[in-house]
Amino acid sequence: MVMIDPTASEGQQMKDLIQYVSEALVDRPEEVRVNVLEGENSIILELKVAADDVGKVIGKGGQTAKAMRKILSAAATKLKKKSLLQIVE
Questions:
Q1: Are 16 and 9 in contact (CB under 8 A)?
Q2: pLDDT in tens, 23-73
Q3: What are the residues whose beta carbons fall under 8 Å from the beta carbon of 89, sequence distance 6 or more?
Q4: Cβ-count burial of 47 within 10 angstroms (0-12 exposed, 13-18 middle, 19+ buried)?
Q5: What is the DSSP letter of 38?
């Protein structure tokens, strides 16, 4: 179970969320890295995983990545911000 620190910044909370979900999906969770670029009206998260785990976070037809982006969008909407999840190698 993940505990999101309510005193952390908005970007950090979203980073923790994506980190937790991604680590649960991959074979090598120790290689999951999430970088946050936080602007005034937007939050960009860059997700890096091991090369052989990229398919697991993208999913068949991109369904897993789409689901993570929807969760992120819902969280960002609550904060009145826009969000973007980039899966990078």
A1: no
A2: 999 999 999 999 999 888 999 999 999 999 999 999 999 999 999 999 999
A3: 48, 51, 54
A4: buried
A5: E
- CA–CA separation, 36 vs 44, rounded Å? 6
Question: Which candidate, 28, 33, 89, 37, places its Cα nearest to that of 58?
Answer: 89
At 33, list the tokens.
């890295």
Residues 6+ apart with CB under 8 A from 49: 22, 26, 28, 31, 32, 33, 56, 57, 87
Question: In this structure, what token pair is assigned to residue 23?
Answer: 């680590």
Judged by DSSP in three states, 86 sits in strand
Which has more pLDDT, 37 or 7? 37
